[in-house]
């Protein structure tokens, strides 16, 4: 049986990265880009700078994707709080498309499925949430 915990009362900050930290790292990539571009335009070897830019930005792409998943999760919470359960379900599913191991989303999706009357899906989502190590 799915425990009845109000959606939105769970601490999602545990998985959220801080946007200001991400902003600082993207600024580093921009600075690296400017150095590499100047070297490139002067005909100087800039391979190491371009490689560093790629490394930094690949990491940030993952962080940005996670931020998008957090945004979908939070939008789902808002919809659920406004009793727009189908919209909430869609947002939670969008979050899981981006981050299929985002345990709290499975918990919130379980609550929504239960409220929509789909007990089997609610149980599956709740079990997945537990399998991922989240115990509400």
Mean pLDDT across residues: 86
E-strand count: 0
| Tally of alpha and pi helices | 5
Q: Give unreliable regions as ranges.
A: 1-12
CATH superfamily: Tetratricopeptide repeat domain
Helix content: over 70%
Quickly name the level 1 CATH class: Mainly Alpha
How would you describe the shape? elongated
Return the CATH topology: Serine Threonine Protein Phosphatase 5, Tetratricopeptide repeat
Largest sheet composition: none
Task: Indicate the CATH architecture.
Answer: Alpha Horseshoe
First-last Cα distance: 13 Å
**SSE topology string:** HHHHH
Assign the structural class, choosing from mainly alpha, mainly beta, alpha/beta, alpha+beta, or little secondary structure: mainly alpha
Q: How many domains is the backbone divided into?
A: 1
What is the C-alpha radius of gyration, as a whole number of Å? Answer: 20 Å
Strand content: under 5%
């Amino acid at each position: 049986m799915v425990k009845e915990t109000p959606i939105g009362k769970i601490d999602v900050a545990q998985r959220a990265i801080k946007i200001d930290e991400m902003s600082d790292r993207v600024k580093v990539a921009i600075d690296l880009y400017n150095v590499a571009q100047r070297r490139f335009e002067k005909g100087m070897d800039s391979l190491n700078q371009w490689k560093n830019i790629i490394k930094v930005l690949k990491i940030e792409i993952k962080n940005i994707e996670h931020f998008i998943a957090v945004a979908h999760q939070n939008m789902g919470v808002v919809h659920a709080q406004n009793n727009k359960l189908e919209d909430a379900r869609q947002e939670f599913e969008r979050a899981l498309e981006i981050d299929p191991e985002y345990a709290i989303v499975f918990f919130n999706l379980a609550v929504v499925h239960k409220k929509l009357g789909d007990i089997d899906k609610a149980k599956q989502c709740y079990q997945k949430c537990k399998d991922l190590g989240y115990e509400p």
